[in-house]
TrEMBL record, chain A:
Name this protein carries in UniProt: Permease
Keyword Cell membrane: yes
Membrane-topology descriptor: Multi-pass membrane protein
Originating species: Saccharothrix coeruleofusca
Membrane spanning residue stretches: 64-91, 103-127, 139-162, 169-187, 227-245, 257-273, 279-299, 319-342
GO cellular component entries: plasma membrane
TrEMBL record, chain B:
Keywords, comma-separated and alphabetical: Membrane, Transmembrane, Transmembrane helix
Record's protein name: TIGR03943 family protein
DUF1980 domain: residues covered: 8-111, 153-243
KW Transmembrane (keyword) present: yes
Source species: Saccharothrix coeruleofusca
Lineage top rank: taxon: Bacteria
NCBIfam families in alphabetical order: TIGR03943 family putative permease subunit
Membrane-spanning residues: 33-54
């Protein structure tokens, strides 16, 4: 990929005229590479279909396409909101809206997550845009973690799935909100701005004479292209795990609560289920006690392979390498606290 | 990656989603209710790419007149970073247009031993069954009733189940997958078939099986898989939506 010349501009930016180039020199650009790849794929189609005609690979490829197809509408919703924030919401308005003390703004942002009805893919671009608009990282991260788990759609689907044990909804809400707030506070106390890739925090340049709609479209497009790639990467991992994780994992657990909690937390990470669907999966694991299943529901929307991929794309690898394990631990602890209170 | 390439990829991806949504193939991967959202998503992707292409063409036309928007030099380093991940967008495009993976089937059912008998439906009670001679039931409903309905409402009733053939060892099942959002959360529901010679039926063959439940066969010991004494079995073409919900 090193030979490919990249000439694209950053988010929201209007393209400058290209510097004049020596006209005679022909270069291989990504456009030619793409064409070559497409032609190659067409030529090799029969071979590809043949190779994938093994039950395991068929299942994995179906799950892969399913995860991508299912998540794309939410990602598009997220990038449209992100574009709208960039274009229409001035940074000063956000500052007025949130309490000036970060410690107070963190829980406010967590509760504000109720207003973003989507699964986790939508919240990553939005959180990143909030940071660029001058919202404190801790506050934006708290929103990022809370939004996929505490919005009405997820709570209703959890209620429908767990009709017999309605306390599950309260426990899930509490556990997820607690995770978001604790992570926000932890970031306030220990987080270093340097962990977040510089590109994620850079303020958008002021543009004069550019229509707001142009900014909106360009920001949304840029976020979609960038986050979309990472979403696909996450979907690939999740599909691989879905056929590689031995099913006995779930069966042998039974009443071993400690092991059950750990395994369910790991399963939530590798399966990368949509937060609107995970309750139905959890309810069908009727061999397990409620507590491990609650852990599954709290960990899933906060940290999974798809989210880790999206986060490392939006905020950089060194951020994701610290944030994901910390969130994992905090989410398990929060779920246990919520379970102790409610179940 | 060049901006032009990104736009081409976006058009391809949006086109792939539209193709799935408009041809009905999306039912292999997600729930039927997602269709309008897939159409909107596909259109938004294509429109965002089209807007960018048109603006680039216009900017290109004006380009020689002078540097009207010359403030993007710092953008390059940032973009290099994001460039490689964007290539991943090609994977779902190729998967949809070239490979078009099938709906999940027997392989998924055999990956797990659990039978998704829905405890949660017990609380809301069971509606009385119609008086018809043969009652068509979803496998989910059949399993749930045999496992949790103590009144024995299915005993001595002839039932018709629709599903595909699954083999595990010497046992032959009729099975379906239930999804609540997308194929990634599919959970199997299955019924053990007895009473006929099922050897001519290949795995994944869709069938309609009529027969009667063996009362009390769905217990904790059998992992809530009921036994079904089959009196007739007909191979059928797969339904458009292969999943139960």
């Amino acid at each position: 990929m090193a030979g490919i010349i990249s000439e694209v501009t950053i988010t929201g930016e209007i393209r400058a005229p290209r510097p004049p180039r020596p006209p005679a020199r022909w270069r291989v650009t990504s456009l030619e590479v793409l064409c070559a790849l497409l032609v190659l794929a067409l030529l090799l189609q029969d071979w590809l279909v043949g190779v994938l005609d093994v039950p395991v690979l068929r299942t994995a490829s179906t799950v892969f396409v399913a995860i991508c197809v299912q998540a794309m509408p939410f990602l598009v919703l997220g990038v449209l909101i992100s574009g709208a924030i960039a274009a229409f919401v001035p940074a000063s308005a956000l500052r007025r809206l949130l309490p000036s003390r970060t410690a107070l703004a963190v829980p406010v942002a967590g509760v504000a997550g109720v207003a973003l009805p989507g699964c986790e893919c939508a919240s990553v671009p939005v959180a990143r845009r909030l940071m660029q608009q001058g919202v404190a990282p801790a506050v934006a991260l708290s929103f990022l973690l809370a939004a996929p788990a505490v919005n009405p759609i997820v709570l209703v689907s959890t209620f429908v799935a767990f009709r017999d044990t309605p306390w599950m909804v309260a426990a899930r809400f509490t556990g997820s909100l607690l995770t978001a707030v604790v992570m926000g506070w932890l970031w306030t106390r220990f987080g270093k701005a340097g962990w977040i890739a510089e590109r994620a925090l850079r303020a958008l340049p002021e543009r004069e004479g550019t229509s707001r709609w142009a900014v909106f479209a360009e920001t949304a497009r840029h976020d979609l292209v960038e986050a979309g790639g990472f979403l696909v990467l996450g979907g690939l991992f999740a599909a691989a795990f879905s056929v590689l994780v031995p099913p006995e994992w779930m069966q042998t657990l039974g009443s071993q609560v400690v092991l059950g909690v750990l395994v369910m937390a790991l399963l939530a990470v590798v399966l990368a289920l949509c937060s609107e669907a995970d309750a139905f999966v959890a309810v069908s694991m009727s061999a397990l006690p409620l507590l491990p299943r609650l852990v599954f529901l709290v960990v899933g929307p906060a940290v999974d392979v798809k989210l880790i991929a999206l986060q490392s794309g939006a905020f950089g690898k060194s951020f994701a390498a610290r944030f994901a394990p910390a969130t994992f631990a905090v989410a398990i602890a929060s779920a246990l606290v919520a379970g102790w209170v409610f179940l | 990656m060049r901006r032009e390439t990104q736009n081409v990829l976006l058009v391809l991806l949006g086109g792939a989603l539209l193709k799935l949504a408009l041809t009905g193939t999306y039912l292999r991967y997600v729930k039927a209710s997602l269709q309008p959202w897939l159409v909107v998503t596909g259109v938004v992707m294509v429109v965002l790419a089209a807007v960018a292409i048109v603006r680039d063409l216009r900017a290109g036309g004006r380009g020689h007149e002078g540097d009207q928007h010359g403030h993007d030099q710092h953008g390059h380093d940032q973009h290099e970073h994001a460039a490689r991940s964007t290539w991943m967008l090609l994977l779902p495009v190729l998967a949809v247009f070239l490979i078009s993976p099938p709906a999940l089937g027997s392989d998924t059912v055999n990956r797990s031993d659990r039978n998704a008998a829905q405890e949660s439906k017990v609380a809301s009670g069971f509606a009385p069954l119609p008086d018809d001679e043969v009652i068509p039931l979803t496998i989910t409903e059949f399993v749930t009733r045999t496992a949790w309905d103590d009144s024995g409402s299915l005993d001595d009733r002839t039932v018709k189940l629709t599903g595909f053939v699954v083999r595990k060892g010497d046992d032959v099942y009729v099975a379906r997958l239930a999804i609540s959002c997308c194929a990634a959360d599919a959970s199997p529901v299955k019924v053990l078939m007895t009473g006929l010679d099922f050897s001519p039926l290949p795995d994944d063959q869709w069938i309609e099986a009529t027969g009667r439940v063996v009362p009390g066969s769905a217990t904790k010991e059998t992992a809530y898989v009921p036994t079904f004494t089959v009196s007739g079995v007909t191979p059928i073409t797969p339904p458009e939506d292969t999943y139960e919900s």
